[in-house]
Every structure is written in structure tokens, then in C-alpha cells.
Amino acid sequence: MAIPHPAVAHGSHRVNNGHPSSDLRGQLNGHPSGYLRKQLNSNRVGDRRKGDLRSQLNNNHGRFLLDQDILNIIRLSARSSFENMGEEKENEKEKEKEKSNEFVKMAKTQKGSVELLKRIVYEDPMQWQEILDGILECILEVMTDEYGHHLFLMVLERCDLCQFQTIIDTLELDEDLLIHASFPKHGSIAVQGFIKKLKLTGLAHSITSLLSKRFVELMTSEHGRYVVLQCIYTFGAKENEVLFSCAMRHFKELATTKYGCSSLFDFLKLICGFQRKQLLQNIADESNFLSNDARFSTRTIVLKKVLTLNDNEAIHKICDRLKMEFINLCSRKGCNGCQVVLKCLEASEYGTKSVLENLLQGSEEVLLKLASDRFGTFVIQTALFKARTFDFKLYKLLVAILKPHFLALSSNENGRLVNLVIKCCEAEARSQTI
Questions:
Q1: 62: Cβ contacts below 8 Å, ≥ 6 apart
Q2: Higher confidence at residue 77 or residue 100?
Q3: Which conformational region is residue 313 in: left (phi greater than 0), alpha (psi within -120 to 50 degrees), or beta?
Q4: pLDDT band at residue 317 under the 50/70/90 scheme
Q5: Gyration radius of the chain's alpha carbons
Q6: 181: part of which helix (H) or strand (E)?
Q7: What would the pLDDT profile of 138-168 be if each residue is shown by its tens digit?
Q8: Which of 159, 177, 290, 386 is most buried, taking the most CB atoms under 10 A from its CB?
Q9: Phi and psi angles of residue 14, each rounded to the nearest 5 degrees, phi first
Q10: pTM of structure
């Protein structure tokens, strides 16, 4: 009798009669079932999800790369546009510069200047603005040019306050520009026109303050001095106060130069009131310095011109300072000293008495020498005429010294003129008594 084999457990699977179970067979045959099938299915889902994620990442990376390319293109395009804009602006600037250079070239020729003047007068506002902009680019060249300065003056005449402010702003960019323009002849004329126009703006203090920094240079310049004098003529005492202070400090320096002495006298004629009195007194205080023309003949020019201004206080002070120097002045070589004495004689009665008193203190020899001198003879002749009018007593004293030397004076042409004056004065006196 066959004994049935009991079911033997093999692992987690049963073996019946030595044969594996159906689950085990399926597993061995490569067909999962049950738990294994579930595990496999789960792994497949995970792999699918990983594939989807990888695909999504790849897609996103591609999109990111695409967006990055677009951004790069945009950046390049923007940079290119910016560079193009820069080039366009540079081209515009070059064109404007060429146009302004064209205006400047035209302004510096007679024909071109006339053409631009016509355009300013007759053309439309846009054309006029272009000309103004072109001139402002090289304003110094235009102002100092023989023909260009005429154009600049016309621009000043035709421009409104807004356009004039543009001109002011251009000149203010460089303080030295206006100063440099003041020294040449045509530039000086242009700056004077600018000063006249400036009166309307209330900016007089700015220009006078600027000119005061180079006051001596300008006042001793052939053409630059007229710029300063234009300020004195155009503006009031308050605006010109800084220039007046400069004149007070530097009048001695001005007196020692050719143009400076003329500038100082013109300055005196233009100012008035307290400022004029004060400057005259300061000049009179320096009479000894100004009359000493050993090196600078221009000094006496200032003194002589001051004596012609009919300011009694200044005349008195000058005569007092020179009271003991008249004979020395007449005895100096040249005519400058004698001319100062002559101006004192002619300035006033006080001046005549001062000179005569000093002459009478000299010896007969000195008076005879003066009477025979080329320049001194004019001093003696003028003294006789003036004394005959203002102080007959002094006249008689002078004649009493000269008349005994009639023959000695007659031997010299200059002396003969002195004898002739004495005869004329005596004849006039006799006619009056009759």
C-alpha cells in the first residue's frame, strides 16, 4: 500500500508530491503573480514617473535655454540700438559742428558776414536760432574778428532776453574768455556792445567784478581800457564801486604807462561826486611823485590834466605840494617840468601867486637863465601876463628884477620875447592911465 507523501513546505510555497505550486511555477517561468506582480507593477509606475519627470526636466531645460537665447537676443538688440543711437547722436553733433564751423567761416569774411546779417534781419526765427547756436560754438573767434564782431553786435541788437541769457551763460563758462576778447581792437568793440546790453539785465556787478580782477592790465591796454570805461559810462556809482576801488589803489601804476595815464584821466572825467573828489585828492597828494618825470614822462601828463579840471581843492593841494619845487621843475631838462609850472600858473589865481612867490625867491641869475631858456621863457612870459592881472605888486617885483638886464636878454631870441612882453604890459598900463 502506497503511503501518500505529506505536503512538504518549501520556503513560503508548498510542494505537492514533489511538484512546485502554481505560484512558484509562475515565478519560475517568468510570469509573476500575486505579490510579485504588484511589486513589478509598482516599479513600472515609478519608472514611468521618473521618465515623465526626466522628460519634463528636459523640456524645461530646453525652454530655459530658449528663454535665455531670447534674452541674449534682446540684450544684443538693445545694445546695438543703444550703439546706433550713440552713433546717430555723434553724427548729429558732427553735423551741428560742421554747420557751426560753416557759420563761423562765413562770419569771418566780409561777404559771408553781410550774408549772415541779411539772414538775421529777413529770415525766419529757426534760421536765426541756427546762426546764434553756430556763433556760440566759437564766440571768441567771432567777437575778435574784423568782420565777425559786426555780426556779434547785430546778434546782440536782435536777440531777446532769453537768447541774450544764452550768450551770458556761454561767456560765463570761461571767465577769461571775456577778458581775452577785451584786448584786441575788434573784441573790445564787441565787449563794449555786450556791456551796453547787459544794463537791461541787472547783472552789472558780475561784469565789473570780473574786470576788476585784471584792472591794471585792461587800463594800460590800448583797446582793453575802453571796456572798463564803458562800464563807468553805462552803470551807476554803486555798480562801479569795485572799479573805483581799483583806481584808488593803482592810479600810480596807471600814471607811469602810455595808455594808463590817458585811461586815468578819462576815468576822472566819467566819475562824479564823492568818488571824483577822493581820487583827485589822492592824485594831488602824490604831486611830487607825479612831477618827477626822470623816467616816466607820462606822470606829468596826469598832473597837467588834473590841473585843467578846475577843481580848486585839488589845485590848491598840488600847488602847496610843489610850492618849493617850481624853480627846480623849470630847470629840468626837457619841457615836462615847465609845462607843469605853466599849468599851475593858468589853473587859478592861487596857482599864479604860488609860482610867482617861488620864482621871486630865486636869484637874478636863475631868472635870467629861465628867461633865456627854450622852455623857461614861456614860464616867465606867462608869469608876467598873469601877475599883471591878478597881483600887480608881484608883477612889479618881477619886472624890477628883469628890466635891468634888458641888453643881456636882447642878445637871445627867447630873452627878446621876455623884453617884448614887458614893453607890451607897460604900454597897456600907460593906455589905461590915460
A1: none
A2: 77
A3: alpha
A4: very high
A5: 53
A6: helix 175-182
A7: 888 999 999 999 989 988 988 888 889 889 9
A8: 290
A9: -90, 150
A10: 0.71
